[in-house]
Amino acid sequence: METIYRLKASELNMQFIDSVKQLFKDEEIVLSIVPAHKSSEKKVKYATRLLDSIKRIEEGKVKILSGKEFEELTAMV
C-alpha cells in the first residue's frame, strides 16, 4: 500500500501521526518529506524527459531491441 499526504507543515499534529499508525499498523514505513514545489519540479522534469524519449523513438532515432537482439549485441562486447 502506498499513501501520499499533502499538507502544510503547520497542519502536522498527533492526529496525523495517529492516522498513519492506524493505517499502517506495525508495518515498517518510509517517510520522505520535501517541499511540494520540489516534488512538482521533479515530476515536470521526468515528464519532459519521457516525452522527449517517446519523440526520439517515433523519429527513429532510438532502436528498440528485443530481448534476443540485446543478448546477441551484448555477447559481442
Any overview of this molecule?
- By secondary structure, the chain is an all-alpha fold.
- It has a domain at 34-77.
- 56% of the residues lie in helices and 0% in strands.
- The protein contains three helices and no strands.
- It has helices at 14-24, 36-58, 67-75.
- The mean pLDDT is 86.
Percent helix range: 55-70%
Quote the beta fraction.
under 5%
Tell me the Rg in angstroms: 21 Å
Along the chain, the helix and strand elements come as HHH
Total helix count?
Answer: 3
Mean pLDDT: 86
Structural class: mainly alpha
Largest sheet: none
**Count of β-strands:** 0
Low-confidence stretches: none
C-alpha geometry: elongated
Distance between the termini: 42 Å
Q: Secondary-structure map with pairings?
A:
Blueprint (H helix, E strand, L loop, with lengths): L13 H11 L11 H23 L8 H9 L2
Tags for this model:
single chain; 77 residues; mainly alpha
Write a concise synopsis of the structure shown:
The chain contains three helices and no strands.
